[in-house]
Structure formats: C-alpha cells, structure tokens
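Lay summary. Proteins are chains of building blocks that fold into shapes, and those shapes determine what they do. In this project we predict the shape from the chain. Here is one chain we studied, written as its sequence of building blocks.
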Amino acid sequence: MPDNAASPVTPEIPRADRARRFSVAPMMEWTTREYRAFARGLTREALLYTEMVTTGALLHGAPRERFIGFDELEQPLALQLGGSDPGALAECAAIAEQWGFDEVNLNVGCPSDRVQNNMIGACLMAHPGLVADCVRRMRDAVGIPVTVKCRIGIDDQDAEEDFDRFVDTVADLGGCETFIVHARKAWLQGLSPKENREVPPLDYARVHRLKARRPELWVAINGGLKSLEACVEQLAPLDGVMVGREAYQNPYLLAEVDQRLFGAERPVVSRAEALLAFRPYMVARLEQGARLNHLTRHLLGLFQGQRGGRRFRRHLSENAHRPGAGIEVLDQALAMVEAVPASA
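And here is the predicted shape, written in a compact code that computers can read:
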C-alpha cells in the first residue's frame, strides 16, 4: 500500500487481513491466474483467491504449477483448499506458505455433489469438530493466516444455534480467527450449485449477529453484493466483504475499490487503461503457448454498458478461439470501443 493511502486499516495488520477488507471470491474456472492478473490492473489492494484446489490434486495430481502457480503481480493472494483430512490439509497449507501465498482458506461452503462425495465443502458444516481439527492442524503447520469460508447452515440446520455452534467450535477448538460467511444456507439435496447461489434467501442479519456476539473474530460477508455502495453498507457492522460473480461478469466494479474502501489517492483507471496494462501479460502468455480465448474470456464484461461494448465482446467471442489468433484480435476489439473517459 502506498505511503499516501489513507487506509482505514492500520499498516500493522498483516497484509492478507488488511486486503480482506474487500476480496474476490474463489470461483471454479473463473478466478484463474489469467483473471487475477487482469484484476490487478483494476485493484492493487483487494485480496484475490485461487480456484478451489483439493488436497488430492495438490498432493497426488499433475505438477503443482498447474494448480497453484501464480505471478507475484497477483498478490495479495490466498489459496483455497478443499479437503477434510487434517494431515493432508496441514501438508497442503505448508506447501501454500512455501509457494508464497498470503493466506490459506478452507472451503466449507461448496454444495456440489462431486465435492460432497469426498467430504469437501458445505457438508463439513455438519462436522464442526472435524473442521476445528483441520484448522488447528493447518495453523500448527504455517505462519500465514488460516481462514474458513462457510455458509450460515445446511439443509434442515435452520436454528441459529447450529451456526453459532459451528463457529464457536471452529474458533475455540480450532483457533480460527477469520470467517468469510456466504449469507445463505446450502441445500445439499434438491438444488444445483447454481441454484444454491440464488434460491436460498440471503440472511445478512445472521452474519451481523455473529460479529456482534463474537467481536474478536474477523467476520466478512459474501453473497448478493453487486455494488460498492452495498459493500460499504456491509462494512459498517462487519470487517470485510467478498464479491463473487459480479466482480467477474462486471470487472470494472473493481476499479474504485482501492479509492473507496482502502483510501488510496491514486487516480481510478479507465477500462482502456486496465486492458492495456494487461496486454503485455497476454503477449507473454501467448508466447508461452496459451490460447488467446483462454485469456480474453475474462475480459468480455469489461465494457459492459459502454458505447461499443457489444462490438468488443462480439469480436472477441467470434475471433479469439480461431487457430493462430494473436494479440491483434484484442487490439481490433479495443478499436471498436469508442473513447471512454477515465472517470467513466
């Protein structure tokens, strides 16, 4: 953070805790290293997360670079792990610290059938003692923060006591100090992962009550946040906010995060400036053999609602996947967008 940033968070707070004031949620196939590099052209301060990586993949899968490789420009950066074996999670947390991640996060919120079958994700909310053991072992293995991302409940767990019991167990027995709470229940039977992000009603008040009851915990909220105004509102009773799909589908939301939530005094970048900042990274990745559409798919929402935005998106969608497509396709798409003021 620059010296002139009037951040509401003191510099003594560890980098991940400070950055967690605003974070971009881990999203499978979306928060790839390419997206994270692009996002850094819009916000320097926000905490970014990897896609969820399972312990099995990290310990026994393909070369680790495929799962957890990143560029320094992506930091501050957290690795989200999926798993329920305390020993394996501790080993993976140690790997995360060795690779330079600023935080390691345990997924206790994903509702998909695939992860449930491996005792990963939201189903772990029914096993707070196991989660506490996992967190304790991870904390013993590393010096970086170990955090938990969870829901407010699952299935027929509707009493607030169930949520409170989960948090208290993981905090008191596991030593967890940070909870990022998706303010919806997860229905493990009967709803798809997509429906679980939309159908169960949001209950922000339950997360607010948790923070009021356990003020010593760092509590951030996730779910349904679509504007910085909504984020600012949530930061009154809470410590942090996490934005998911909106930060991906409408990435320019990130452009004012540093100024409005961290007190940075540098100018807000324009959409074109953010794109041009990402261009050298794209050129380098293309030279390494990456396909253009794997890079440009993260840019499709950048000019949402702007003059020429549809032409920009259509040109990339129709041409970036073609064999041999190079950076000129991006340059052509940008030329289709009418000049947008830096303040737009």
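What the prediction tells us: The mean pLDDT is 91.
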